[in-house]
Amino acid sequence: MAVPSSSRWRHWLWRCDRLGVVRNNLLLRGIVLVTAALVLGAGPASAHAALVGTDPEDGSTLAAAPSSITFTFNENVSRRAQVAVAAPDGSQVKVTGVRGLDNTVSAKLADVGQRGTYSASYRVVSADGHPVTGTIAYDVSAGRTVTQVAGPKQEDFIHRHSSHLFWGILAAVVAIVLLLAPLRRRNDPDAA
């Protein structure tokens, strides 16, 4: 088989590359449109459940320890929820009957008879399947005085959304590679 002359070979490559660029351009435009639709259109659908109220309220002062606690969210959450309450001395309050129903999670609490700040933590799974955690605090003014112990802090934004950050960066890298690949082929005379 004879090898085409240099000018014929370049012309043949130019025609193939031209058709390939057209196909790649259409594919690239489609990928960019789908990616943009997923990223820009997923705002409300991917929102996590947010705490809108509690009983007792966050930061409230109570005359006596509550017998139950209720968390209310802006959307339905899974029935399997976790609630933990820390007493002022750092010990765990006995929590029973944790129950999720629609957009509320409630639990019964044992009275430990301590005055001070209690911290109540929750973990639920929102309607979009993502876990949501948080902590509230309330004071009980009746009972015996106990030295305050710092309760658990809420996770920071980056920690809660690290998987979103990872997938966003990965999508950006893939998009850049797909955008630059046709340009590299066009500028490379040895590409076949």
TrEMBL record:
Domain of life, source organism: Bacteria
GO MF annotation list: copper ion binding
Transmembrane annotation, as ranges: 165-183
The protein's name in its UniProt record: Copper resistance protein CopC
Record's keyword terms, sorted: Copper, Membrane, Metal-binding, Signal, Transmembrane, Transmembrane helix
Cellular compartment(s): Cell envelope
GO biological process, one term: copper ion transport
Entries under Pfam families matching the protein: CopC
Domain CopC stretches: 48-140
Gene Ontology cellular-component annotations: cell envelope; periplasmic space; plasma membrane
SUPFAM superfamilies given in the database record: E set domains
Listed InterPro entries: CopC/D, CopC_dom, Cu-Rt/internalin_Ig-like, Ig_E-set
Keyword Transmembrane (UniProt): yes
